[in-house]
Design a protein that fits this description.
The complex is a heterodimer of chains A (441) and B (508). By secondary structure, chain A is α+β, with helices and mostly antiparallel strands. In chain A, 37% of the residues lie in helices and 27% in strands. The two termini of chain A are 27 Å apart. Chain B folds into five domains: 57 residues, no CATH class; 83 residues, no CATH class; 81 residues; 142 residues, no CATH class; 102 residues, no CATH class. The chains are: A alpha+beta (441), B mainly alpha (508). Chains A and B meet through helix 2, helix 3, helix 5, helix 8 and helix 11 of A and helix 1, helix 3, strand 1, helix 4 and helix 8 of B.
Amino acid sequence: MSIAWNTEQILALAPDASTAKAGNALAQKSKWLTLGFDTRAVWGECQGSGRSPYQTKIALREPAFACSCPSRKFPCKHGLGLFLLLSANEAVFTQKTPPVWVAEWLAKRDERQQQAQKESASKAKTADAKAPTRRAEQRTKKVEAGLAALEQWLRDLLRQGLATVQMKSPRFWMEQAARLVDAQAPGIARLLQQMAFITHSGKDWQERLLERLSCLHLLMEGYKRIITLPSALQADIRTTIGWTQNQDELLQQAGWHDLWLVTGQRIEEDERLRTQRTWLVGQTTGRAALILQFTYGREAFKESFIAGSLVEAELVFFESAYPLRALVKSRGETVRLAAPQTGYATMNQVIEVYAQALLQNPWLELFPVLLSSVTLRQAESRWFLCDDEEKGLLLSSRFQQIGHLLAIIGGHPFAAFGEWNGDALLPLGIWAEGRFINLSQ
Amino acid sequence: MELWQQLVTTALLGTERQAFKLESPDGALGAMASQLDYANKESALLSAAATVALYRRIGQLPNSVRGTAIQPCEADDLPICSELSTKHLALLLTRAYEWLLPEWLTALSRIGKRVPPTVLVALLDYAAGEEDQLQQQVFTAIGKRGAWLLEQDFQNTWGFLRSINNPEEVWQTGKPPFRLRALKMIRCNDAQRGSELLAESWKQEAPEDRARFLEALVANLSHEDEPFLEAALEDKRKEVRQPAAELLARLPDSAFCQRMLERALPLVEYSKGKLHLILPEECDKAMKRDGMETKVPQTSGTYFAITKIGEKAWMLTQILSAVPTQVWRERFNVSAVELLELANKSEWTAALKIAFERSALNFQDEEMAAAWLKDWRGDSQFHWNVNNLVNLLKPERRDSLLLEILSSYKNIKDVNSDILSSWFFNSRAQWSENLTRVVLNFFRSRLEANENWWARISSLTSTMSPLTALEEISSWSPELGAKERDHYFDSIIETLSFRCEMLEELER
């Protein structure tokens, strides 16, 4: 078989720690009555507490999991255990032809995928034909009213001075954010929520806060003149405020084909909403893409990516002056690769390209940085990724795994991928000693 | 940048208090400044701030990092264990299987492999709170990369693990419990250095610490330590004199043992097939200096049988403990077994048997240990030190002795369960296949007699020979001890299977 995932990459798919642990415990031959795989799928039967054994199947392409056990988690512990066992001990998978219950499932999936593509095509067509609905008009009105109120609020704030803000609790910001949520401008609400923590973020908080507030002001001023701006910038303004672009329409466009390296992945949880960022870097074009997915509670994300793997795919990009976010229009085989073929060689390069990106989209939050060879250095108890010109990018204080990173690199140079926010880099993955290590766990 | 600072100051104070006026700089920024609509002061301020902030951001340069570069790690010479073994290790670090970790580490070291870098942090975090022996094993398993990682300067809880690299530093500067461990480590590698260090700081150490540190001299104890220990017998505190005496009692050529021998010889006679004993009259000053006491210890922390012997008999025991039993065997021309039989026939049985047992331990006397264990057969009065005697024997001898003892019972059902308790349940040594089979047979017979032994079987799953145990237990009828079986069976099989799997994978 062409694929051999390592344990970390597989465990990265687990919905929570207890499933990962249970999956580990099930990755033993003694737990499975039958085991088999072919080029498309892996399957097995596991004796559980029920009368008949559970039938677990994995479609290798995405990969996608299914199991007859009653668990609502996705993938369940059986799926994880099966996949882990395959990666560790291929030899015990004795069946070579899929039994009926696997073949049927694969056939149904193919059918469903074709059906979904047809549907989204027809949905897009009908959307084109309709005029903007009343709902869209109402939303625009609400947003404009919300922005007007926010403008006044901002003026008051600047009149009294930012020094007064230091006394206020985070509620001051959260309340204002809530009003923007009501005004259907969730993007702005999020920006305000983030500002709540700046006043206590240490030295120079005043500068950081002023920068953020002025950036927000720029957004609002931009919106006032939006029709005079180039269409790509219009898209960025609308996206930052919180409008979404129509995905079905997007999927009708021609996409970018490439062999994409999945360089990093991160999941953030906010109460029950889980947001997953997956970064892809095209190996022939060097172009970066961000796949953003959302789920509630324990549901699986629609597309599965294994960080460190190469995926053949066609992506369509959301409109932007500096396009990053993309959708998967179609995808092919997933294979593994040892190291990225592209990447910045120096930090000066990184900062230059970042500057260009900011020029295009001043509200860019996260900039993807793939570095072909860096070393780790410490200066005054802060850690940096450095090039060979002694220039470095500061590692984010959110990164808590310095020990783990040191252990893996052994002080030698390595390749890395991370998200740069203008001040600090959050590393998501590294390549060392011929292997990819996912750091976001 | 001045323009930016102006803006920040104005924003901080607020437009009500601070007039907002920008000094127009040259160039593009100046052009922007002149376009601002000062009628709406706050808006103008924000617009100016937005432009200047973006200007600064775009002109930002990467940090120059002048810290020292990290010394890269040397290439490791040991190969890494397989990925499946790494997966096993991950399980071993969870509560589910952590008691099997020593076995895994021993096997890993035997085949000459190390753990991969990706688990180093997890393993070191785990080992940081564990005892010496495990820490030593972990230290071997982590290879050069692990040792290198311990030296790196970042937040972690591995303070003591580092000392495995430089114990002398910990000895000089660490806290007492760490210092003891460091001393033990130094002593194991270089006995002389260990005693040198202790002698150097001896006078400055607190009495409690002195008593504790003497513990470290147990390893590699030799006659070179005699002068130091003999001097320690003069220490003001009993808690220091006592361990010093105990250590001297292990050195057959020492003046201490010579003194004990001289006291002992006149007290023990052998004639007409019997032992004749004379009890010492009193505990004189010299005896007291040698750590002897008249007060008979009570049960807590010792044999039950001791409480029944009188003061004088206890003195006899103390003296005889410091005399190797070879002395009597040679003098009277008897074997260890015969010596014990004589003890059994004498009127001071308890005093003698306890003395012979302690003597066996002091002088690593395997013959006496084996004879003593055979004679003991689970008598609960003499329960106290059995583990230590068992551990004295070489593994094959130990196993064959137990088999001998077990088979000496006509009916396996009569085997005293105390034998098994002290022999097995407290010792971590691995069993041979043969021993495993015999003992499991015994357990089965107990289950057949409707006694609940599943719990005890369960507690032994880490020491039985795994493959043999798995075969045996799997072959038992499901009716055996059916009531309790459900609760234990699955986890017993799981543990044994896991052990088989993890050992098999390492050997591959």
